[in-house]
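Colleagues,

Please find the record for the two-part complex below.
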Amino acid sequence: DAMVIQNPRYQVTQFGKPVTLSCSQTLNHNVMYWYQQKSSQAPKLLFHYYDKDFNNEADTPDNFQSRRPNTSFCFLDIRSPGLGDAAMYLCATRQTGRETQYFGLGTRLLVL
Amino acid sequence: KNQVEQSPQSLIILEGKNCTLQCNYTVSPFSNLRWYKQDTGRGPVSLTIMTFSENTKSNGRYTATLDADTKQSSLHITASQLSDSASYICVVTEAGGTSYGKLTFGQGTILTVHP
C-alpha cells in the first residue's frame, strides 16, 4: 500500500498560472518535506514542516509556498510558474527519532 | 560546504555482469549514508542504510560498503538485471544540531543494463 501519495503524477500548467501539488501520507509522520528535482540533478530541498512549524530553505524562491492543514496532508503552491520551474517535485516524510525519509512517486510538472 | 560526489556519472553494462558505483562525501557531522534507486519518473527508493559503525550492508544483489575514515562508500551490484537500469543516488544524513536530519544528495549514477 502506498504510504506517501502524491497527486497528480503529472501536471501541465501555463506560464504564470498558479498550480498546487498535493501530498498525503498514511504513516502519521511529523516531518514532511518538499524537494524539487530537475532533469539529471539531485533533489533540492525547498522546505519542510516539523509538525506545524514551517522551515524554508534560504534559497527557495518566494514563488514557492506550502501549506500543511493537518498531519496527513501537505501542499506545494507555485504562485506564478515559470519555465524554469518545470521539474519533478518530490514529497517525503520522516518521524522524529528515525532517519528514514519515505518518498512519494513524485509529480512531474510541465510549464507551457 | 557539505558535498556528496558520485562516480561514474553514467555506466552501461551487459545483463548478468557486476558493477560498482562510488560515492565520496564531506558531510559533517555524519549520521548515516543511504543508497537510493530512482527509476525514471519516480521517487527514490531506499536500498541500504549504513551508520558510522557499519562498513558493509547487503540487500539481495546490492552490497554497500562504507569507510567512515576516508568518507567513501561503494554500491556493488551482482548479476545485473534489466530492471536494475535506473539512477543510483548516494545520500548522506547530517547528525545532531538540527532535528530534521538534513540530507545531502549526490548527483547520481545512471546505470543502463543492456541484454
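The CA atoms of residues 47 and 97 of chain A lie 19 Å apart.

Comments are welcome before we finalize the supplementary table.
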